[in-house]
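User: Please predict the structure of the protein below. I'd like the answer in structure-token form so I can feed it into my own downstream comparison script.

Assistant: Understood. Taking the following sequence of 154 residues as input:
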Amino acid sequence: MTTFSGKQPEPPTGMIKNAPFWPDLDLNEFVVNYRVPNDLTVGTVREHLVQAITDINFRLSEYKTDNLCAGYEHLDQVPADEIACESLLIILYRRAVSCRAKASICRDYPTIDRREPAENQAKSAPETEIVYLRFADEAIRQMLQETDITVELI
């Protein structure tokens, strides 16, 4: 039986160990920066983040192979500009994974953020998942130095 204590639960902590080329990710950083509802269990949040890592790593597998062949063993060794003493590639990778995980959470828990209907419409609107998926795709395209324009033959 759970009781109301009036205290906010502590955000989950810990690092998620990634594949050797890619950076490890901080679970707490994701929860705080992407406003993950504290109603979700640590295991649930972790699983969404692990699945997002899997997806993004798979999508960037050719990029990884090219850089390994060029002699770079880790993403942070690939030459790139820095912001706040951090490689732009690490920043973009983390954004791609985090947005992918947030989109997954929005899809699986569409009503988790709902309060009064008029107050949090943006947080729980169906477009939110699509927006975060777009953000993830934009980060990947920036890493790959591709344009944001996609053209398909009809």
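That's the full token string. The CA atoms of residues 52 and 101 lie 5 Å apart.
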